[in-house]
Design brief:
eight-stranded mixed β-sheet, RibDG_C, alpha/beta, Dihydrofolate reductase family protein, globular
Length: 199
Amino acid sequence: MSDLMVDFIISLDGYASADGWPGFWGMEVPEYLAWLGEDSENAHTTLMGATTYRLMSGFAQEAPEDDPAFAGLNAMPKVVFSSTLEAPLSWTGTELVRRDAVEAVRERKRHDSRPLRTLGSLSLCRSLLRAGVVDRFRVVVFPVVTGATGRERIFDGYPDIALDLVESRTFDGRLQLLEYVPTVLDGPPADTTGFDHVP
């Protein structure tokens, strides 16, 4: 039995990226980069959709061989859920899965011992969360607001989810890691405070 973690980096206002901003919003702080290298060495299988695969496999091909951000990712097993990509895939260690991602992940969780972790892939993560197969939800929050230039709002279309904080950490006094156990809700919880929250 394995666990599944959805893993995002986000701006404070919930965007995955922003037009004109550099990668990591220009905040590739040393402590965070070192943690990324350590984290990529942990034995897990990376799950992604076709768009993320195209982007990341391109970056991996262009990255220097000793780039710590990609060395671990290149070595670990990867699974891509896509009906548009064709096998064989060029990125070493990548398996193409054409069937329903939720069912494939459920089966993998039952039969594999290696942890599963997503990479980007907003629609895939949304589907997995909605289906209730996600065990952990982790974000690294970058202290920027990109309301004018932000792209890919991460949480649009998500169900209501209650989050129980199980880990937190600050990198270089700037970036905040927050890790939660998610619970998908049927709707807002009952109001036990006696206050009316409707504007």
